[in-house]
Amino acid sequence: MSTIRTLASLITASLPAAASAEQTAVGLDERIETLLAPLTGWVERIILFPTPIPGSDAQMAFVVLWLIIAAFVFTFYFRFINLRGLAHGFRLIRGDYNDPRAAGEVTHFQALATALSGTVGLGNIAGVAIAVSVGGPGAVVWMMLAGFLGMSSKFVECTLGVKYRSINPDGSVSGGPMWYLSRGLAERGPALATLGKVCAVVFAIFCVGGSFGGANMFQSNQSFQQIVGVTGGSESWFADKGWLFGLIMAFFVALVIIGGIRSIARVTSKIVPLMGAIYITAGLVIIGVHIDQVPAAFALMFSSAFGVSSVAGGMLGVLAIGFQRAAFSSEAGIGSAAIAHSAVQTNEPVSEGVVALYEPFVDTIIVCTITALVIIISGVYIDGGGMSGVELTSEAFESAISWFPYVLAVAVILFAYSTMLAWSYYGLKSWTYLFGETRGAEYTYKTLFLLFVVAGASMQLGAVIGFSDAMILAMAFPNLLGIYFLLPTVRRELDRYWAKVQAGTLQTWRENMRR
């Protein structure tokens, strides 16, 4: 009750400010920002509590440290599965071992595309720009390292997601941390069973909040900023009409999420490869034109990563920024991707864990690196005039390709759109875990999700990004706590599966069709 009273007092306290804003004839966007900013600030302070870094003025959110330590542990515990599983994962993605008769709703490729749609996008386009503008080029090195280690985290959580998923009577799948925390820990005894139930509920609550924040409001916010940028900036007709843009975006989101995971997978499996190819190609063209500057750009990144001016403090400060943006970009250890991967058609949990290795690899190592090189080569992060986020990335691309901001505007909107689609599914599964698999619960969640699309486009980046980081990163606390107890289970699954791979006894697609 005290929490409810606190929330009520915060909202009530903000109402006079909203009224004042109205009296001074500001737009609807600013009134929404005035009303919601105190609430987002409160959530950020509670969840993203800062931890001072010894020998540095910098601070790192404890949750980021929690994520990185887990990624290190998983990488060594599974003997660098993030390297030795890549070749087999590629064969799985291209369909060599697809089994249409297995339980599940989507193929390995569709599951990966859906999960990638929740990560590849604004975390790479806007997130890298934020990291470089705040922490300098060196932050990118730590982003890449965090992405490499995060591949192991994705392997563990997606393997568990398939192993402990629930197959519903209609053939649909419910899976993810809610299920492997409650079911997996229950196998370890009564004491851990209680812990598992608590972790599952806490995770589901944070996932619902994350689906409204970073996966929804942040996406619509940055999409709107890009539209305003290419249509005249402060003089644009859209400049004070974020709510209208939000309504349009919400309409198109609603068209797809009504159909569930199959509909979402069909759309994302087309959008993600197309827009990814366009974005990466444009980045490579710019890098190719300035190929002589690439060695210097990498040298700058690595020298900055270790603190050119203040060795210990500089390095740790930049590390903190890079790790935090990487955690938000790849979501490795957060547990969200396991919800999408759980819907895959397979009888082998480890097979989807191996496929999931490609998420951080594509997201944080490939796409983020290309974005960073374009920003550094262009030099706009030095004299960007205070720009950050997607505006800085757009300026970097425009410096080499004058018309690219229009392409980027389309890419940003489609990336944001696909992210919303994926996270609407994550949030929905968490919501129905809490309130039951009923039509009423499903429609209630989808309605709220669409309302937050409008709210996000109407708020300023500062309020949105704090809320985004807080709710999404907080999911890591219950997720990783439970996973530590389940590592022996994953090890047994991996050893059994890898023995099949090495013995050549896994059935191929043609063999599965003949069964």
What does this structure look like?
- The chain contains 23 helices and four strands.
- With 515 residues, it is mainly α.
- It has a single domain (45-514), classed as Up-down Bundle (Amino acid/polyamine transporter I), CATH 1.20.1740.
- The strands form two sheets. It has a two-stranded antiparallel sheet with strand order 1-2. A two-stranded antiparallel sheet has the order 3-4.
- Helix 10 packs across helix 18 (389-398) and helix 10 (190-230) runs antiparallel to helix 21.
- The longest helix is centred in the middle third of the chain and has 41 residues, at 190-230.
Give the tags:
515 residues; mainly alpha; Amino acid/polyamine transporter I; two-stranded antiparallel sheet
